[in-house]
């Protein structure tokens, strides 16, 4: 399987960055296994830049609601309408800073699947959970959110590895990815995220059970991001 490489810009972006970062990515001849998730206001200009390429567009979040009087929300159908093929759900920053919990996340996943968006469902333990030896149990518990839903993509992102420069070890990644596949099915793609950079991407992709990468900081530089894509 060709690894899925997703760039998550988080709360970073401008019209200028759409040109300076996305244009080289659009021009590089990359495949549909590469996805970029800019902030919502930039989805449409990003779509414009990427339409000459196979690189796909993704959203960082989606509303739990389909439509109506929900000020500030962006629905799954709207994301689809402006060219997204995928959305992240349950990123640890959404869980941690915005209090997103299992019932809410399940509604978001349902909304996205309903309109045919692929879902990348993010899971991952905090440092104290890992230190207590409960990382796998914690991640499997988070995945209960998806029970009886159609298959989605899972991203394992240990919270302590996000934006810290500290990646999980090969053994830690392999253990969790294998546990996720054992619980969810061998065919469920499982991505790794957390301080992935150009210089560690290939070795992480080589780990058993890793089907792709979810990349934050390193997706904000075109050359660095493209260097994470195996060719
Ligand atoms: P990072 O973020 O690559 O900056 O660690 C990863 C993520 O949060 O998806």
Largest sheet: 8 strands, parallel, barrel
- Which ligands, by name, code or SMILES, are bound? 2-phosphoglycolic acid
Helix content range of the residues, please?
25-40%
Number of strands: 8
Whole-number average pLDDT? 97
Structural class: alpha/beta
| Uncertain stretches | none
> In whole angstroms, how far apart are the ends?
13 Å
Element string (H = helix, E = strand): EHEHEHEHHEHHEHEHEH
Strand order of the largest sheet: 1-2-3-4-5-6-7-8
Q: What gyration radius follows from the Cα positions, in whole Å?
A: 17 Å
Principal-axes geometry comes out as globular
In what range is the share of β-strand residues? Answer: 15-25%
Number of helices: 10
Question: What would you note in describing this structure?
Answer:
The chain is globular, with a radius of gyration of 17 Å. The two termini are 13 Å apart. Strand 6 (153-156), helix 8 (170-184) and strand 7 form a beta-alpha-beta unit. Helix 1 (15-27) runs parallel beside helix 2 (43-50) and helix 7 (135-143) runs parallel beside helix 8. It contains 10 helices and 8 strands. The mean pLDDT is 97. Helices cover 39% and strands 16% of the residues. The chain has 231 residues and is an alpha/beta fold. An 8-stranded parallel β-barrel has the order 1-2-3-4-5-6-7-8, surrounded by 5 helices. Bound molecules: 2-phosphoglycolic acid. 2-phosphoglycolic acid (PGA) binds at residues 8, 157, 162-163, 193-196, 214-218.
């Amino acid at each position: 399987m060709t690894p899925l490489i997703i760039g998550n810009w988080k709360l970073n972006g401008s019209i200028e960055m759409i040109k300076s970062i996305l244009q080289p990515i659009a021009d590089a001849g990359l495949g549909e296994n590469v996805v970029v998730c800019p902030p919502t206001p930039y989805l449409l200009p990003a779509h414009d830049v990427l339409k000459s390429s196979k690189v796909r567009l993704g959203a960082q979040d989606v509303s739990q609601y389909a439509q109506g009087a929900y000020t500030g929300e962006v629905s799954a159908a709207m994301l689809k309408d402006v060219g997204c093929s995928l959305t992240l759900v349950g990123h640890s920053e959404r869980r941690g800073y915005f209090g997103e919990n299992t019932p809410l996340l399940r509604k978001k996943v349902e909304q996205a699947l309903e309109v045919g968006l692929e879902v990348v469902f993010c899971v991952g333990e905090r440092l104290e959970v890992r230190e207590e030896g409960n990382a796998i149990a914690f991640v499997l518990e988070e995945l209960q959110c998806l029970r009886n839903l159609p298959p989605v993509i899972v991203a394992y992102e240990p919270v302590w590895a996000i934006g810290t420069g500290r990646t999980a070890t090969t053994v830690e990644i392999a253990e969790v990815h294998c546990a996720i596949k054992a619980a969810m099915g061998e065919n469920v793609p499982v991505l790794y995220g957390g301080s992935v950079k150009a210089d560690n991407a290939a070795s992480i992709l080589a780990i058993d059970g890793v089907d792709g990468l979810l990349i934050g900081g390193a997706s904000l530089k075109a050359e660095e991001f493209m260097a994470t894509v195996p060719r």
